[in-house]
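Assess this one:
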Amino acid sequence: MRSVYSIRNILVIAMITVTVIVIIGIAGYNYNLILNDKEFPKIAGYRGSTFDGESMYFAPYYNNYGRHGIMLKYDTSQDFTDINSWQIFNVESILDVNGFQGVLYNDNFVYYVPYFTEPDKEGTSMLRYDVTLPFDNVASWEAVGFFGMYEDGVVDKNYIYYSPHLDSKGDRHTFPLRYNTEVPFSYKTSWESFDTGINASYIGATSDGEKIYFTPWWSNDEEGSSIMTYNTALPFLEKESWSYISIPDSGYSGAGFNGTHIVFAPCWCDGNIHKNQKIMFLNIETQSITYSEHDYGSYHGVIEVDDTLYLSPYVMNNGTNSDFLKITNSITTFNPLISKGGYWGGSYDGQYVYYVPYETAGNIRIGDFLRYDTTKPFTNYDSWESMSFQITNFNYNFEDPFFLNEW
């Protein structure tokens, strides 16, 4: 395994809430180049985040130049817009992995959910980071493979559950996967994959403490789709442990539990997929399904904050940005104005809700990280804060783990 390096020394941070751009560590930069990177940034296109009790981690997926592995770690005890609060490195140049759709934390390890694999590979590689070791230490990182393609997942007790989207060949065959965190990461016996016999894709999962609920995206077997559930008290590889709740629609992306209901986020991001733009609620006691009264837009991910849920807003297929949503016993909407487009997932650090930037309505990948202070009113503009990274594309080698200057 090759070394992993920190590249904080050449970061450029743009503070979105003010008009000042702070340029750090780039001698002789060209202002026009900085502006171009502002339009098409490299540090952009993330899907999912997680919190380890001290730092926030973001999963890299696809920026304006292709799938990438530019990892980010933010120390939540420090200023959100301070360069010293962040660490960054290009994991792709070290382990030849990229394209993650989700990241999960459990017991001193951060697990990145793999979605992309090259055609000449046997499948994806699972990646994890040991938070007890330095971010720039080669011994901190471990990758194992090969597996299928997953989109997010959930931690329940000592297991990591991966939400199945496609198999290792890119086909829509449903093989939910789980990892036993009490067994070494590289052992085959630590991994279990169940062949459900169905042909469907899921994006995200949540737990009510007894069952795992997988969010239905698309099915090749039925006109609508099915919520897939696993009873954690039963063996993972037994057919009787799994059940399915048929629904008339498809296209949900992410789920959360509020104590009484599983809430599924509708993703109206493809007019050919989703037929119902309403939020779906599953009562865990009665198994009955209800929907929100109104259509709110397109969402990717549900952020759990005790019994309150926040939906991560995306761009609708008509090019409109969706409103931010807060769900308690009612639904509150807000547009903080400093938001830049579509977000994909997020997480909570005990005070702030973080939204992960992905792309605009024009399919430009964005790197404008946004957070909301839950100690302040949801509908106040000063409750929200945003920042973005800028690195000059034309004068730095992004394949090098240092992002070394090519001059």
Observations:
- Residues 110 and 129 are 5 Å apart (CA to CA).
- The radius of gyration is 20 Å.
